[in-house]
Structures are given as structure tokens and as C-alpha cells.
Amino acid sequence: MSIGANVSVIAFGAILAFATHVHTPGLNVGAIGAVLIAVGVVGLVMQLTSLARQRKLTAVTVAQGSAVVVRPYDDRPGEPPYGDPDGEDGGF
User: Fold this and answer.
1) Which of 27, 32, 26, 33 is nearest to 11 (CA)?
2) Of 43, 73, 45, which is closest to residue 57 (Cα–Cα)?
């Protein structure tokens, strides 16, 4: 779900939980609203965590000048897929 969808689920759950006064046998509308709020908050936290991880960047200075190359951050072990950052191959 996107951020907008999660906020919509939270808003709909809040409407059900706090703004409706429907009494039906066997169905608690307030409880359904609380569950929707919880699902929306969990989804929103997961979405924001995922976006924060995707936006992690690292900057490497190229040896031939003062240019800065910005590449996605990769915390996996092993060699980077983009060449030698020491400048032996121009940083690419």
C-alpha cells in the first residue's frame, strides 16, 4: 500500500471508531475502526521504513576532479558493482 492508502485507511478507521454511533448485534463498529487504524499505522510505518532504506545514498569523490558521484548505498558484503572507488578506473 502507498502512503496515501495507509492514511486513508487510518482516516476511515477513525471515522468508524469515533464518529459513528451504530449499534448492531454481533458487530462492533468501534472495534472495526480500531482494527483499521492499527492496520493503517502498521502499513504506514512499514512504507516509511522501506522508503528510508531506498533513499540511503553514499557519495564518492572522483579522483580526476572535484566531482561527486552519488550512488545507491549498498550494505551487502562483497565488491561493489560499480568499479573501484579509489579512482583507478575513474570511479566507474
Assistant:
1) 33
2) 73
